[in-house]
Amino acid sequence: MLRAMASHADVAIIGGGPAGSAAAILLARAGRRVVLCEKEAFPRFKIGESLLPHSLDLFDKLGVREELARHAFPKAGGEIATACGRRTQRFYFEGAMQLSHRSAYQVERAWFDKMLLDRAAADGVEVRQPCAVTGITFDETGATLATGGGEIRASYVLDCSGRNAVVGSQFDLKRSYDHLQKFSVFAHYEGVQRDEGRDGTLTRLVRGKRSWFWLIPIDARRTSIGVVMDIADFRAARVSPQAALENEIAAAPVMHSRMAAAERITEVHAVGDYSYRNTRMHGQRWLLAGDAAGFIDPIFSTGVFLALHSAEQAAGTLDFALRHPLLGRLRMASYARDLNRQMNRYLRFVTSWYTDEFVDVFTAANPPLQIPQAVNSVLGGNIHPNFSVWWRLQLFYLVLWVQKRHALVPRLDDMKAESAPEAATTA
Ligand SMILES: Cc1cc2nc3c(=O)[nH]c(=O)nc-3n(C[C@H](O)[C@H](O)[C@H](O)COP(=O)(O)OP(=O)(O)OC[C@H]3O[C@@H](n4cnc5c(N)ncnc54)[C@H](O)[C@@H]3O)c2cc1C
What is the CA(3)–ligand 1 centre distance, in A? Predict the structure, then answer.
């Protein structure tokens, strides 16, 4: 419901996704007056369903852990397979090094996002929805946000508007990564073949030569299926997103066989605005969090994790800035440094994922020195790895470097030779 005019808020938050709601809850609980504008009516379809174990502590803090345990689907880990089906590597959070939680959740985002936003409203956040922020003017003492329902005045703006990146777009801060220009097309299905027991909860990544798929079980019946490819490949194919999805599934034996009896139950959705980052994360009266700060290709389910983590840090930063106006900018700069560091860590993984050697090494049998357990730890959301995780990560990257030059384990090309002829284009 729209109201005509807000009184002065401490913080105005743009966007009611996971980042916006989490930050709003934490700020409201710190006694701050918070207005949150969300442009869409919830529930609405959203992609990004696979969560990480490290977010569980924040779910406890937000008071939503029990609700997740009741409604969300458990997740024991992940699996990486080649599209031809010859190589598979499973990893369970149970076996990860230095990870405080041994499982995570898969969620239907329509439910999850609404649940968090409802919690924010219950905690005293003034939620305006549907309410799109159309522009912001900043001055010495705060900001004025223009919305369809009138203006909002606040001391600080926290931009959690996701890939819309309202503040980043206004100040032209958004920069894409040339090497990660991807296109993704996805939908929900029923009847996708699953494994028994805990293996039926895994996030599956099926890696082809020029594209890869995810299979995420979001409840006992429904599975989120998507494919990611170079945007140039999608354009060159000159087909609709739906045809691209269907063609890719048909060409990948693992997908084809798991989906033989599957039925699509949602529209097909597509996203083309892939990995980017803002050149600045803060200004005198504003701060960015979640995808509004940057979006690293979420192959390893890091999107919601980074959104929640940055939201928690951003809420602490703004609360500090409101208490200590003179020191606020220093704390914001430190927030931005930390967030850039986390994004760099996952960017390195993502960049590696798109190399052949990553899959060569990751799917190799019996890797030594507990390297997968260390990689698994960081992929579980461990952003402060101790020394024993750190040196194994460095070794992992060294092995990738060597693999590129001298085959330590059989290469993807060997896998292609092993695979059925129809798999050759995708595996
Ligand atoms: C293809 C794909 C697959 C993904 N898979 C995963 C996954 O498996 N696991 C994972 O963790 N992450 C995944 N992600 C990433 C994940 O979806 C995002 O990282 C996450 O949703 C970010 O949360 P957020 O709160 O920052 O932004 P969002 O969830 O995008 O929320 C932003 C909100 O702001 C609102 N908004 C936008 N503009 C305005 C405006 N002007 N005024 C008011 N409101 C506005 C939007 O309506 C939206 O509700 C995936 C992303 C893509 C594209």
Answer: 25
- Model-level pTM? 0.92
Phi, psi of 46 (to 5 degrees): -150, 145
Nearest protein Cα to ligand 1, atom 37 = 161
> Quick one: pLDDT at residue 3?
43
All structural domains of the chain, each given as residue ranges with its CATH number in brackets, are: 9-73+107-176+277-346 (3.50.50.60), 178-271 (3.30.9.100), 355-414 (no CATH)
125 pLDDT tier (thresholds 50, 70, 90): very high
Integer-rounded Cα Rg, in Å, for the chain is 22
47, 118, 151, 181: which to mutate for ligand 1, most atoms within 8 A of CB? 47
CA angle 75, 77, 78 (to 5 degrees): 115
Distance in Å, CA 162 to ligand 1 centroid:
5
Q: Whose CA is nearest to atom 27 of ligand 1?
A: 162
Per-residue pLDDT band for 300 (boundaries 50, 70, 90) equals confident
User: How many residues are recorded in the chain?
Assistant: 427
Identify the pLDDT of residue 368.
65
> Average pLDDT, stretch 324-338?
95
Distance CA 417, CA 427 (A): 10
Binding pocket residue ranges, ligand 1, CB within 6 Å: 14-20, 37-40, 47-51, 132-133, 160-164, 166, 184, 186, 226, 271, 290-292, 298, 301, 303-305, 307
Closest to 42 measured CA to CA, from 122, 131, 125, 105: 131
Residue with CA nearest ligand 1 atom 30? 162
pLDDT score of 287 = 98
- Residue 155 phi/psi, 5-degree rounding, is -70, -40
